Amino acid sequence: MKNDKIKNIIFDLGDVILNIDVPIASKSFAALSGKEQSEILSIFKENDLFRQFETGKLNEAGFRNYVRELLGLSDLSDEAIDTAWNSLLLDLPPERVELLQKLAGNYRLFLLSNTSSIHITQVNKILEASTGIEKLDDLFEIVFLSYDMGLMKPDAQIYLNVLEQAGLKAEETLFLDDNLDNINAASKLGIDTIHVQKPLTILEYLKDYAV
C-alpha cells in the first residue's frame, strides 16, 4: 500500500534492480582452483575477503592478490579473477529501468548497495547493453556504494550517513532491499521499507507509486 508521506526512494541493487545469483561466484572460483565450492566459501568467509573488498579495506589490486594468495594460484590473471567475481551478476531487465525513470518524475531516487568497484564496472556494462544508459549515476540523484563509504548494510551508520548526506527525513523515505537484516536495520531508524522477495519485483511492489 502506498505511503503518501514518501518523497524519497532508496533502492538496493542486487536482486532489486539487477538480478544476481551469489553462489555462482563461489562455483566459478572453485572451477578456477580445482577446490570444492564448500572449501572456497569457507576460505573466503574465514578471511573476510568480500567484506574487506566491499568496505574499501582492499582495493582492486589488493583483492586480486588476496584471492591468488588464498587459492594458492599466483599466476591467476586479473581477468580470470574479475570474470569469476562478476559471474554472479546476471541481467538487468529494461522494464525496471523504465520504472525508475517514471518514478524520478515524482520522487528523489537513490541507490544504496553493498558492492565492490569491480562489480560496479560490470553492472554499468550490463546496464548500457540492456538499456543504452551508460551508468547507474544517470538513474539516481546519488549512488551510495559500500566500498566508497567504508560501511556495509545493515550497519545503522550507513543509513544515517545517507539520510544526512542527501538531506532526507526518515519518515519521508522508502527503502527497498531483498535482505531482511538490511530492512530491519532501516526500519529501526524510522525509514519506511519494502522487503523485496522473489518472484515479485519492484514492478509489483511499486505499482502504486508509479501512477
The percent of residues in helical segments reads: 40-55%
Number of helices: 11
Principal-axes geometry comes out as globular
CATH architecture of the largest domain: 3-Layer(aba) Sandwich
Number of strands: 5
CATH fold name of the largest domain, please?
A: Rossmann fold
CATH superfamily of the largest domain: HAD superfamily/HAD-like
Q: Any idea what the radius of gyration is?
A: 18 Å
Organism: Dyadobacter pollutisoli
InterPro entries: HAD-like_sf, HAD-SF_hydro_IA, HAD_sf, PGP-like_dom2
Protein name: HAD family phosphatase
Task: Describe what you observe in this structure.
- By secondary structure, the protein is α/β, with parallel strands linked by helices.
- It has two domains: 8-20 and 90-205, HAD superfamily/HAD-like (Rossmann fold, 3-Layer(aba) Sandwich); 23-86, DNA polymerase, domain 1 (Orthogonal Bundle).
- Helix content is 47%, strand content 11%.
- The protein contains eleven helices and five strands; from the N terminus they run βααααααβαβααβαβα.
- The protein has helices at 23-33, 37-46, 49-54, 60-71, 78-86, 94-103, 117-131, 146-149, 156-166, 180-187, 202-205; strands at residues 8-11, 108-113, 142-145, 173-177, 192-195.
- The chain has a five-stranded parallel β-sheet with strand order 3-2-1-4-5.
- Helix 10 links the parallel strand 4 (173-177) and strand 5 (192-195).
- Helix 1 (23-33) packs across helix 2 (37-46) and helix 1 (23-33) runs antiparallel to helix 5.
- The protein is globular and about 55 Å long.
